Amino acid sequence: MWKTKCTHFSSCTKIPIKCTSWSRLLGLFSALLRAEFTKMVLRNITVATTAVLLALLLRPGVASAETTCSDMVPMRNRREVISITDFGGVGDGRTLNTWPFQKAIFRIQHLRRRGGTLLYVPSGVWLTGCFNLTSHMTLYLANGAVIKATQGTLNWPLVEPLPSYGRGRERPGGRYASFIQGYGLRDVIITGENGTIDGQGGLWWNMWRQGSLSFTRPNLLEFMYSQDIRISNVIFKNSPFWNIHPVYCSNVVIRSVTVLAPRDSPNTDGIDPDSSSNVCIEDSFISTGDDLVAVKSGWDEYGIAYGRPSTGITIRRITGSSPFGGIAIGSETSGGVENVIVENVNIYATGIGIHIKTNVGRGGYIRNVTISGVYMNRVLKGVRIAGDVGDHPDNNFNPRALPVVDGVTIRNVWGVEVQQPGSIEGIKGAQFTHICLSNVKLWGVAGRWEPWRCSAVSGAAFEVHPWPCAELAGNFANRFCYN
Q1: Is the peptide bond before 163 cis (omega within 30 degrees of 0)?
Q2: Across the strands, what pairs with 117?
Q3: Do the bridges between strand 404-425 and strand 432-442 make them parallel or antiparallel, or are there none, so unpaired?
Q4: Which of 114, 200, 214, 239 could form a disulfide with 220, with the two C-beta atoms 3.0–4.6 Å apart?
Q5: Which residues form a coiled coil (predicted)?
Q6: Global confidence as pTM
Q7: Within 13 Å and on the Cβ side, how many CA atoms surround 126?
Q8: Which residues are the active-site residues?
Q9: E strands in 80-216
Q10: How many of the other CB atoms lie within 10 Å of CB of 371?
Q11: In a 3-state reduction of DSSP, which class is residue 178?
Q12: Residues 6 or more apart in contact with residue 148 via CB below 8 angstroms
């Protein structure tokens, strides 16, 4: 029987993975080198930058780190293992496997085996339309397995817009369903041996550039109203829109993943926790056409009315590159964002290293954010906290709905070849408060640097280079900056 031959992977699901950070990082980097798209990316990086990347991945401070939040969703053993080939799946890159995936997941859902079921996807290219997952299952991608999305809008059903957005993010009305999706689920794992989920987004990107889209593009992976989700050891590639989008979820672990898209691919955010709580993002490499990680919580009057914040978000040991933002909060923050921890992040060849963004009409709040241990190389702007970013879903937003930004600490940041150190520009009538910069050293190109720009902000700054704006510099009365 097939099941007797699967001990090489089923044993991986029997215990949680407890590797040291050193092993995780080496495994992650080797996975990157195996990925065809990443090889192309690395060929376009200078030798000097590659050396910097290797040094960052292997430097003792990172390699010895043991702190993790991933234990909140443990890796579970599934008592039953089935293969997509048992349901007629053919991994030749030409045969459409939508029906085999649907049959396999229908079986898992309705037989409800005690302890759940692992769906094994062996090596091969498995072409399929979008499909739904179910509770108490593991989707396991073997080494060399590629789940590849079909192209063409006719193969993608339309779904309702998110209630906290009121419409599609790009176009009024509905949106195309995500490639792999889960709704109201519990206890779902997506993992494997660094297999690939490929959204084949090129067609969608071209439609966006040409203005021919009638509805918002699909995400690569989206969970809604779900809990106890774990995603690890998988490569996500060429998403039509956002890559990984947990929305209205709780207890989500995204760890040791690789997210890839060309630098010119529009709106291909890496990981976007949205109106979700207790989200752990760790030990991953992201190179996309938009923000690497962006924390969100709804859009203007719709997000205010829905009122579901993003809270308890941990982002740790992320390396990546993007023409836009590295670590971002916003700009959709109308439900509120609080209790965010970002640690040990390496950002290179990126537009803005740390970007906190909101706008008039957003309402909501951004509170209790701590960002530390960030290294930047070849970044256009190191830090930007801004109150004039992002568009509006319609003309019904309330211009008096002013966001609150209070309690943002940025410390232990080092950057080289940073063209402009930063700007902190609040909103008239809604000053950004308790902004703390501590041990932030951003060095310009060839010894040149531009000054900080600030307005409508209060806080403190200590050991900052270049010396920050007058609103922060020398404000030693603010003891909160030491805590």
Answers
A1: no
A2: 80, 137
A3: parallel
A4: 239
A5: none
A6: 0.88
A7: 28
A8: 290
A9: 80-83, 92-96, 117-121, 124-128, 131-132, 137-141, 145-149, 158-159, 175-176, 180-183, 186-192, 195-198
A10: 23
A11: coil
A12: 93, 125, 126, 127, 128, 198, 200
Judged by DSSP in three states, 291 sits in coil
Look at residues 7, 287, 243 and name the one whose alpha carbon lies nearest to residue 120. 7
Letter for the amino acid at 290?
Answer: D
Q: DSSP 3-state assignment of 248?
A: coil
Structurally, the chain folds into a number of domains equal to: 1
pLDDT at residue 237 in the model: 98
Are 268 and 228 in contact, with CB atoms under 8 Å apart? no
Q: Are 293 and 268 in contact (CB under 8 A)?
A: no
Residues contacting 442, CB < 8 A, separation 6+: 376, 382, 383, 413, 414, 415, 418, 421, 422, 449, 465, 466
Bridge partners, residue 181, by sequence: 132, 222
C-alpha to C-alpha distance for 432 and 476, rounded to whole angstroms: 18
* 158-159 and 175-176 strand pairing: antiparallel
Specify if 80 maps to a domain: no
Give the separation between CA 435 and CA 398, rounded to whole angstroms: 26
In a domain, 355, yes or no: yes
Which of the 8 DSSP states describes residue 73?
S
Segments forming the whole domain that contains residue 163: 118-472
The amino acid at 386: A
Q: What pLDDT digit, counting tens, does each position of 159-178 carry? A: 999 999 999 999 999 999 99
Question: Which DSSP symbol is given to 239?
Answer: -
Do the domain assignments include residue 18? no
Q: Is the dihedral of CA 202, 196, 218, 165 positive or negative?
A: negative
**Strand (E) or helix (H) holding 466:** none
Under 8 Å between Cβ of 363 and 402: yes
In a domain, 5, yes or no: no
pLDDT, residue 154, reads 84
Question: CA dihedral in degrees (125, 131, 136, 139; nearest 10)?
Answer: 10
Q: Which two tokens mark 343?
A: 């640690």
Here the tokens at position 407 are 């309690």
Mean pLDDT across 239-244: 98
CATH number at residue 125: 2.160.20.10
Q: Are 327 and 346 in contact (CB under 8 A)?
A: no
CA distance 270 to 258: 9
Distance (Å) of CA 18 to CA 125, 151, 212: 30, 38, 47
- CA dihedral angle for residue 200, residue 205, residue 206, residue 211, rounded to 10 degrees: 140
**Do residues 352 and 325 touch, judged by C-beta distance below 8 A?**
yes
Helical residues (DSSP H) of 265-382, grouped into ranges: 300-306
Confidence at 21, pLDDT banded by 50, 70, 90: very low
User: How many CB atoms lie under 10 A from the CB of residue 448?
Assistant: 8
